[in-house]
Fold this protein.
Amino acid sequence: GTTIRREDYRPFAFRIPTVQLEFELEADLTWVRAQMIVQRRMDLPRVSDLELDGEDLALISIHINGDLIGAERYTLTPNTLKILDVPDHAEIIIVSTCQPAKNTSLSGLYVSGKSLFTQCEAQGFRKITWFADRPDVMSVYHVTLRADRKQYPLLLSNGNLVLKKDLDDQRHEVQWHDPFAKPSYLFALVAGEFGCREHQTMTASGRKVLLQVYSDPGSEHQTQWAMESLERSLRWDEQRFGLELDLDRFMIVAARDFNMGAMENKGLNIFNAAYVLADPNTATDSNYQAIEAVIGHEYFHNWTGNRVTCRDWFELSLKEGLTVFRDQEFTADMMAQGLSATAAQSARAIKRIDDVITLRAAQFPEDSGPMAHPIRPQSYQEIGNFYTATVYEKGAEVIRMMHTLLGEQAFRAGMDEYFRRHDGQAVTCDDFVDAMNWALQKKNPTRDLTQFKRWYSQAGTPRVNASLAFDAATQCCTLTLSQECAPVGVEKQSGMKKLPFHIPITVGLLDEKGQPLPLALKGQDDQPDTEKLLELTKETQSWTFEGISKRPTPSLLRNFSAPVNLIYPYTNEELALLSAHDSNAFARWEAGQELATRQILAMAAIWRETGQTPAPDPVMIDAWGSMLKDTDIDAGYQARALSMPLEKTVLERMSAMDPVAVAQARVSLKRVIGQHFCKELIATYHQQSTPGKYSPAPGPAGKRALKNLALSFLVTAHQKEAIELAFQQFNHATNMTDRMAAFTTLAHETQGARTSDAITQFYENWQHDPLVIDKWFAVQASSPLATAKSMTGLMAHPAFNLRNPNRARSVIFQFCSANMLGLHAADGTGYAFWADQVLALDTLNPEIAARLARAFDHWSRFIPGVKDRMQQELQRVAAHPNLSRNTMEIVSKALA
Ligand code: HT7
Ligand code: ZN
């Protein structure tokens, strides 16, 4: 495929200050008239032809300054329209048609249910009309929509409503005007029949704004949480960043068919219905939290993305990393709201833990595989493949490190400066760091972020090795940190020499009782704190602390202050001490997880040799016992601390990955804990009841998480009483969190008539709600009992539909990415299933197919036998004729 390189960026030779779009909307054939003012940029080398992007369009006519032009004045290829020799100033009108009902890619203008939706990021606008479909061309849009009144009673586009009128032939017309210049990827339209929830509110400066949430008729009762989340997002951006909503109305529309989570189109956000609709009976606590986070995320894009946008798609992390950081902080602030200082610290730690789990499960593997790239990639074949955990989640970590280095106040000053300099512009990640650097230097002129910028150009997860030397004679303790980061992904081929990163590492030292020690840096500290932010900028650096009488236990990388793998030769006893006593709640969790990870790795190694799993170290069992019995800690925190590490995170620590051994060892450890603490777990289960009206707030949600974790340990331990409890909970649950928890543990851990009845009953009760049926499919596809054969059966169910991404995700993706035993079945049928599904999806929806293809990124790191079979299936996919550019990029990089 063709590779697009960052260094080849050239500004567009023309400005397009205004665009007037007219649509005659019909599912089979939509007619589009685009009228634009085009001005040659005199500040750039002269280019005579205007080259526009287009895909799957039929051209009807082109007018320049009122004159119809003939075929000699333009050249047309499948993806470009070149208008030759255009005047310096021109009004160009292009009339074309497209076919929404035939568009299964869900990019451009497409049909979902009976409605029409658009998705233009990254390059979908070119499927609607020919245009300079790139983020640095910004225009003011005026949009006229015409359609059948009955079929499409609601016609929405960006900005403010200008006019509404009825036309002949049962048609009507609506006009919209968005006063803010925007790139084409932020254009949106929606046509169809919807229910609407409305709310009038006021911005901080006293402007009245109308908030609207649209969803399928009859689902309005499920949009209250979304509306409340939207209002909380408005308030939070005003308070934390001084940023107000800039339009008179802000609309959210829920779509059943959507490739990602949601889209921040100016004033008209389009959402996957999964991130809008919730009621206690259909949505779990995690669904509620995800809805609040995604609504926040898209709303925050209005400033970080829309008002200031990206110069080109290499700069994607400029808006995504920053906006993920903002949504993470929003959730943390919402969780800590109204709590005492200690309770707030634990609430923030919970959010940090959840984010680090995601980062380690999705981004760390990406950073060590064939798709590894810096948060600002150097090249791509298909931009749709670069909406990655690296650009989003690692991008947010990089912003978070700047926040740690600058402190809240200077970070805010940097944000203010960024908007002061760049409002209304399409800019780069360097521009953002420069604004932060300005704020840092205002605070301390000797500091600067030049070295820090390497996080934008170098890929890979740095490894930081720590060692501690203690000298009893001088009562000094020296901590030495050294960093390394081998070339990964494309870096390997380019022979790139990597340079040290600027890594903030927050540390503490504990005495033998687990009490914090003052950290007096030799000759520097008069009033030492018990925590220090160290900045590792060289390959190796040491810090010496004085006045320490015994060898301490270090607490390293508190709050996960940098996205690195920190290695220290802890003993299990030291980890247990940290897990029980560290004053930093994140580090306490981390120590417990490290204990469990080591245990699983050790058990997996022995299982491979002998087919048996040994008894775990009593130190680990005791640590779990102490955490379980500690009733002073927050239940949500306790649930995270007692959880087993994810299989994926453990696998990542193996030099030769053995998925079956890891899955077996993990479940054995869980079973041992369940059996060992049977009494305590049953007590915990009963103590954590949440009577009364359902609330998704962190308090009751935490209790449910702990109760359901206890249940799952007990069921895994085959505890008879617990299996009975699970059936009761399944039958009598008053909310979906408890129902799903019981259903999952039963479907995954038990077999027999009662279990299959539960599966049938769940379907019968919820068949009217697609989002609940997604859950029903997902539970079955991720069951350790599922096989490629049973998956084929599941996909024959009348409710299965490959064209609906949520359904494909809940069935195929669950099996291929969340079911180690099913995918890696010894007969290889799981691998063949993966390849068949990649190919089937590829003809319908290449973006989704390419995401599925990534499930095999790590084939070469698996144990012999496993990897050979995975490679064969990858080769089968790669050899398939007419593979999309999206999937081709993924499989060819995997096989390179
Ligand atoms: N900015 C949005 C990205 C997005 C997207 C990208 C490619 C294909 C389909 C898509 N739908 C939405 C989502 C976000 O980060 O807010
Ligand atoms: Zn985003």
Summary: The first helix runs from residue 224 to 241.
